[in-house]
Design brief:
CATH topology of the largest domain: Rieske Iron-sulfur Protein
Shape: rod-shaped
Bound molecules: FE2/S2 (inorganic) cluster
CATH superfamily of the largest domain: Rieske [2Fe-2S] iron-sulphur domain
Number of helices: 1
Helix content: 10-25%
CATH class of the largest domain: Mainly Beta
Strand order of the largest sheet: 1-10-8-9
Number of domains: 2
Radius of gyration: 38 Å
Number of strands: 10
Distance between the termini: 118 Å
CATH architecture of the largest domain: 3-layer Sandwich
Length: about 210
Amino acid sequence: MSDTSSQSIPAPEQPTDPPGAGRRNVLVEILTAFLSFIIVAVPSTIGGIFFLDPLVRGRKPKGDGGETGGLTGFIKLPVTADSIPADGTPVAVSVRTDQDDAWNHYKDVPVGSVWLRKTPVGKIIVFNSVCPHLGCSVDYRRSENDFFCPCHTSCFTLDGEKTNDIPPRGMDELEIATATDGQPNENGVELWVKFQNFRSTTSEKIAI
Ligand code: FES
């Protein structure tokens, strides 16, 4: 009769990792982390570049003349030199241009208006139509053949000189250029104006 009281059942063998399994696990973890980084970083970087691009490149110059050699800062008017009356009668013209902010491009935005007239020698002069008194719009008064502001009765000659003491200065004359196909040409009929606004209520002409 055999004695079985001292015998014990052997514990089942624990499975052991095959050789090299630990290194494979580390590699898988590194690869997973790398792929996670790529999945997050690439779209974020592309989005960031797209978002910041306008700021990095800077804003485009305002005005149609922004990229035009000798007319930088000038805006092309929708009238030609030969359409301005030779008898000196002023013509009101709206000034419109494309504008950019950091992310948007706006086409044909009104930025102001001007009075154009031909002097007796055929030279074209241009005035900002904003009254230098308090900023109303100056009209042409046909009965008096002068410029007149209806808000507080400022008056100006057709050369822009003030004729009463209400406005602090004369009308604001602007720089004008003639051109052909966007290139400065003193015989061209395109009219380009360097449009600016100026501070009201001051005797000095201060651009704003
Ligand atoms: S705003 Fe033109 S007269 Fe006052």
